[in-house]
Specification:
Radius of gyration: 17 Å
Distance between the termini: 34 Å
Number of helices: 10
CATH superfamily of the largest domain: P-loop containing nucleotide triphosphate hydrolases
Number of strands: 10
Bound molecules: adenosine-5'-triphosphate
Structural class: alpha/beta
Helix content: 25-40%
Length: about 240
């Protein structure tokens, strides 16, 4: 479904990605783990066109999407939930969700998808008239994921969805990610510092260090790998 070939991305003179190769099959949950500053966020931003790569190729469903504009990439079926959520704090929950459907052409299915996300996160239904900025961190994360789902993505890019949330909420978010994949068949690319939880729900994982992929395997093998255990799973 998605293929990154030798992606090199820069911030001015700083090279953040040094030739990244990743492939994601339709229906998979793939996780990208690594330390702070390894280049995980930059990888997602390169895919969604926010920081276009300087060289390499990104293919989505056999279309070359390298250097396409972010709105074009969204309309092709890739939604990105950025780190820090970035919901619209002044807009209500419902208005935030409507914004997620803004680029859709099949307007008649929007109501059905509103119901789908509110069934997924019933708290959003309860809070639908409240301003997004008044929600708790966990609720804002739920809103950010739901807003992305309102674009009916084929591929959902999630950047650190568990960051800064209480353990019980983290658990809930991971369960829902798994459900979005299994019930709605949405393919998921999950960037996480919480490697343990991420590998538990993912089919396969990639490990990134210093702008390069250093390891790629099934989640099961990565969870059992001593180097991964020592570096990312707390020994
Ligand atoms: P984190 O978990 O901290 O978000 P990450 O693995 O997502 O880390 P990136 O944010 O992709 O890493 O950063 C990769 C590299 O690019 C780092 O060396 C970082 O300092 C650098 N970098 C990121 N954003 C910028 C920027 N706006 N300007 C300059 N350098 C940047």
């Amino acid at each position: 479904m998605l293929k990154l070939e030798n992606i090199k991305t820069y911030y001015g003179n700083i090279q953040a990605l040094k030739g990244v190769d990743i492939h994601i099959g339709e229906g998979e949950i793939i996780t990208l783990i690594g330390a702070n500053g390894a280049g995980k966020t930059t990888t997602l931003m390169s895919i969604s066109g926010i920081i276009p790569p300087r060289s390499g190729k990104i293919k989505f469903l056999d279309n070359d999407i390298t250097n396409r504009a972010p709105n074009h990439i969204v309309s092709m079926g890739i939604s990105h939930v950025p780190e820090g959520r970035h919901i619209f704090p002044e807009l209500t929950v419902r208005e935030n969700l409507d914004m997620g459907a803004f680029l859709r052409k099949d307007k008649k299915n929007i109501q059905k998808d509103l119901k789908y996300v509110m069934d997924l996160f019933p708290i959003l239904k309860k809070r639908s008239r409240q301003a997004g900025g008044t929600l708790s961190g966990g609720e804002q994360q739920m809103l950010a994921i739901s807003r992305a789902l309102m674009g009916r993505p084929r591929l959902l890019l999630l950047d650190e969805p568990s960051l800064g949330l209480a353990p019980i909420i983290v658990q809930k978010i991971f369960e829902i990610i798994k459900e979005i994949n299994s019930v709605n068949k949405t393919t998921i690319f999950l960037v996480e510092q919480n490697a343990n939880q991420a590998l538990k729900i993912a089919d396969r994982g990639y490990v990134m260090e210093n702008g390069q992929i250093t390891l790629s395997d099934t989640s099961e093998s990565l969870l059992a790998n001593d180097e991964v255990k020592n570096a990312y799973l707390g020994g």
